[in-house]
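Re: your question about DUF2200 domain-containing protein

S., sorry for the slow reply, the queue was backed up all week. Below is exactly what I fed in.
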Amino acid sequence: MTFEQFFKQAKLNPHAHLITGVICGYRVEEIENPLTQQVRYLDKLVDELAKGRKMEKILRTE
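Result:
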């Protein structure tokens, strides 16, 4: 399965667009390609969860 297939089938959190910051040297909110941005959202989410941050804080729903 490719990333494209994965994200076509995935239901993203409606707050995913609120994920901000730098991952792999790129600001997530500035990435223009939608597929690349979704992949970086996932990267950022995993990175922040690994650091012990709560999902609510990452998605700014608190």
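The domain at 3-58 is CATH 1.10.8.290 (Helicase, Ruva Protein; domain 3). The chain has a mean pLDDT of 87.

Happy to talk it through on Thursday.
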